[in-house]
Fold:
Amino acid sequence: MAKRQRLLTDFLIKLSVVSSPTPNNEAGTKVEEPGTQTQTNAVRLKDAGVQQNRTPQVKWLSQWHWLYYEDDGMFCRICKETNKKNPFTGKSGCQNYKTSTSTRHVVSKEHQNAIQELKLKSNFQQASVNAAASLSQEESDKFKAAVSMYRTVYWLAKENIATFKYPSLLNFLRLQGCESLNHLQQGRNATYESHITAEEIQDAIAAVLMDDLKKKIERTPFFSVLCDETTDISVEKKLVIYLKLLNTETFSQETHYLDNSVIPDAIYCTWDALVVYFESRNASTDPKAKGILKNIITYDFVATMYLLMDVIPVLTQLSMVFQKQELDLALVQPAVNHAVAEIKRLKEEDGPHMQQLSQCLIPAENGKVKLQGHVLSHCTEAKERHFKAQIRELFCEEIIKNLRVRFPDESSNVITMFSVLGMRPLSFVDDKEAWGNDKIDLLIDLYGKEVQLDDDTKVAPIIDADETRREWALVKDLVLQEAYPREKLATLWKLLHSYHREMFPNLLTLASIALVLPVQTADCERGFSVQNNTKTASRNRLSSDRLNKLCTISINGPPVENFEFDRAVGVWRWKLYGSPKKMKKKKMKKEKKKRMTPPMKILEQLF
Structure:
C-alpha cells in the first residue's frame, strides 16, 4: 500500500510539471513550487485515503485530432457534429482522464459511424457544389438559347415576315451554325419551335415595349392623341390611335411611323394609250369599251384631267409639309395660306396644264377638235367657257371650303400663337422689345389663368403670367446674343432646355405644348402602311390582337441589337411558370434530385 502511494505521488509531481498552465497562471498569478505542490497533493491523498482523479494531458490533443477540452471535460468533435450520444458529447463531457478511455472511444462503433457520416456529408456537399456549377452552366446555355429565340421572333416582326416561318427559320439558323439554339429542347416534346411559342414571345416583347411607353407617358408633362380610321385587307374597319409625347431628357418629340406618297397621274400619262385601246375594243362591238371610250374622249373629261394636274401638286405640297416628323409650327399658317392662294389663282386663270391643253387642241374637219390625234366630242368654245365658269370654279371653291374646315381660323390662330416661340424673324424687326408680345399675351390668356370646367372643377394655371412676360423679354436678347439657330422651333428650345433650363421654366412649358400639338395625322397614315405590310392577302386571318402586337413590335421596337431581350424572357417565363425565383427553386430541386444517389437522398433528409 505504501509503495502504491509513493508511485502515485511521483506521478502527480510529473503531471504538475507537464500539464498545461491554468488560467490563473496565464494571467500572471504566482505558481507554487513543484515540491510544495507535491507535498500538498500527498497530504490530501494521505488524509483522504483515496486515489485522486486524473487530469487531461496536452499530448492527447496531438494524438487524437477529434479531441478538445472544455470546462474540465473531454469532448469528441466528430461525434458532437453528427449528434451522437456518448460520454464525449454530454453536457459536461467525459471526465475519466485515462488513455484507455480515449482509445476505447476511437474504436467504438458510434465514433466510426460518425466518421463515415462526415465523409458522406463532405462528398454530398462537394457533389452539390459540382451540380450547382453544372446547373449554372446549363442555365446559362438555356438563357442564351432563349435570347436567340426571342431575337429571331423579334426580327420576323420587324421585317413583317409571317410568324409561321419561325420554325423554318430556326432550322435554317441551326444549319448556319447557331449552336445556342441546340439548348432549346426540354425533354422529348418541349422544343419551343411552334408558331404558338412565337406568338407567346410576341406577347412578351409587346408587353415590354408597352411598359416602356407607359413609363414615358408618366414622365412626359404633355402628350397629344392622334386618331384616324382605316380599313385593312379583310375589309375590317380599324381606328388607329397614336400618342405624340415629349421626351423630357432630350426635349424632343417622338414619333415612330413612315409613309410614301404617290401622285395619281396615271390617267394623264396614259390617256392616248387608253383611247387607242378602247377604240380597238369598240371595233369588236364591246359594249363596256364603247361606254368607257365615249366618256374619256369628251372635253369635260379631258379638261378635268388637266385641271387636276394643276390642283393636285398644290395640295401635295401642303400635305408634304404636314408629313414631316418634326413639323415646325411656324410653317403651318403660311403653308395653308399659300395653298388657298394658289387654288384661288387656278380658279380665276389657267394653270400650266390647262394652258398646255389649249395649245394641244387642233381644229379638224367639220368644226371638230383633235387632241393627240383623237377627235374630242362636245368640244366647242361655249363648252370651254362653261367648263371654266362652272366646273372649274365650283371645284376650286369646294377645295378652299374644305381647307378652311380642316384648318379653321381658331386653330390656326393657336398655331400662329405658338409659332412665335420659333423667333424666326427676330433679326429683321426694328422694335425687338415689342415683337411677339401680343401673341405671348394670347398664350397667357389660354394657359396662365384658372379655368372652370362644366362640372365646376377648377383647373389651376400651368404658367405664371408675370414671369412668362419677364422670361419672354429676356429670351429674345439671349437668343440674339448667343446666335442660336432658329430654323426649327424644336432645335432652338432643345438648346434653351439644355443650357438655360432654370431661366425659362414657363416658356419651356409653352414650348413643350407646342412640340406635341396634333396639327396633323400623318403619323397615323404611316401606321396604315405598317398595318398593310403586316396584314397582307396571305395573312388575312390575323386577329386584331395579334395584328396589334406585331404592329407594336414593328413600330415601337428599337433595332434588334438595342432591345433588352432578358426582360422579355422574364415576362414570358413569369406567364408560363409564375415567379422567376419560385421557378428557379423548382428547377434546382428537380435537377438536384436527378443527380442524387440513394445514400445522398438519405443524407439530405438527415441534414
